[in-house]
Amino acid sequence: MASSLSKGPVFTAVRSNNAVFQLYSCQCRFLSQSSQRSAMRGIPENISIKQPAQPSMATRGMGLSRSELPQDIGLLPGTYVRPLWRDMPSIFQQPRERLQLEWLWLKSGFQNFLGLVAYCKWFNSGLPLRLKERRQAARELHQRMYSAFAKGDISTLRKVCCTGLANNLSSRISNRPRDEKVSWSLDKYNRTPATLLTGIRVLSDRATQIPEIPDSGVRQVVVRITSRQSTGKSKVVKTGKSEVSVESTAPPKQQDCTEYIVLQKLRWYGEDEDWRIWGHATPTTVEDLANPMFVSGLTFAERMEAMKEQFQGKK
Fold first, then answer.
1. What is the pTM of this model?
2. In terms of pLDDT, which residue wins out, 26 or 188?
3. What gap in Å lies between CA 164 and CA 155, rounded to an integer?
4. pLDDT mean over 98-104
5. What start-end ranges are recorded for coiled-coil regions in this protein (predicted)?
6. Contact 221, 249 (CB under 8 A)
7. Domain 72-284 bears CATH identifier 3.10.450.240
8. Is the pLDDT assigned to residue 12 strictly greater than 60?
């Protein structure tokens, strides 16, 4: 189940739901007059009608309740997700790329920690760092999400997942055959060196203010979870008015899974929301080194401009 959720179009809808943070520019519309009207004195050939100015994000946000505020803002640009050791480029065959990835790991870790301290102690004075609760929250939400998905519990999914992910999982539940029953269990955490022998390792912890909205921000934590999970499917057959029997359609399947879960905690107008699962991330690769957010020697403004051009080119 874990592998099926981390692939395909499940998270495409999540990442694309960022329209609330786009700025809308005012445009002018020109209405051409007919040849008969243009002959009339005192009436210009083109009339410029200016649309009313759009309200700022802060103004639009003030009119919304907390339940109406957005949850999906996308993965923060420049998030470095360290790959497994076996997936890293060889130091002998690709020494330059390997050193670049290792340097990014050290640099991003240092910058992320400074940014987190500034977010908690400077921009939001007195906000706790919550370093200890990250792994605990990841463990709890990870199990609740998969258990709810197996049971078809949409209400719980909307509590533990961001809107885009919850909607996608709910759609998958609705598409199941009505007589199909899904089971899921987490058998154990694989305490490998990849997770520092804990089964759950924090790879990234970033926080930033949300522009134009006072006392508001977002914190995203990427964790690597290595576990052994079992999934199964069965068919529910009614034998009477109140009697049912369950027939197994496939033997339970057990597999080892490595997942990169993104946790998110939003802060709106000085009030923190609960941790939620935003979705799955993918490890940073050698190809990602060409990303403007990872290229060395660029200023922040140059990185933003390069990303803007890259995005417009893809469109």
1. 0.78
2. 188
3. 14
4. 96
5. none
6. no
7. yes
8. no
26: confidence class by pLDDT, cuts 50, 70, 90: very low
| Residue 63, pLDDT score | 54
Render the chain in DSSP notation, one character per residue. -HHHHSSGGGTHHHHT--GGGPPPPP-EEEEEPPHHHHTSTT--SEEEEEPPPPPPHHHHHHTS-GGGS-----SPTT---PPPGGGSPPTTTSHHHHHHHHHHHHHHHHHHHHHHHHIIIIITTT-----THHHHHHHHHHHHHHHHHHHT-HHHHHHHB-HHHHHHHHHHHHTS-TTEEEEEEEEEE---GGGTTSSEEEEEEEEEEPTTSTT-EEEEEEEEEEEEEEEEEEEEEE-SSS-EEEEEEEEEEEEEEEEEEEEEEEEETTEEPPPEEEEE-----GGGGGSTTT-TT--HHHHHHHHHHHHHHH-
pLDDT in tens, 239-249: 766 656 677 76
In this predicted structure, the answer to whether residue 13 has a pLDDT above a threshold of 60 is no
What are the backbone dihedrals phi and psi of residue 5, each rounded to the nearest 5 degrees, phi first?
-80, -30
Q: Where are the domains of the chain?
A: 72-284
User: What confidence category does residue 73 fall into, taking pLDDT thresholds of 50, 70 and 90?
Assistant: confident
Alpha-carbon span 272 to 218, nearest angstrom: 9
- C-alpha distances (whole Å) from 95 to each of 82, 90, 102, 110, 283 are 17, 7, 11, 23, 19
CA distance 209 to 21: 13
53/47 Cα distance (integer angstroms): 18
Q: Tokens for 239?
A: 């034998």
Q: Do 208 and 115 contact (CB within 8 A), yes or no?
A: yes
pLDDT of 241 reads 64
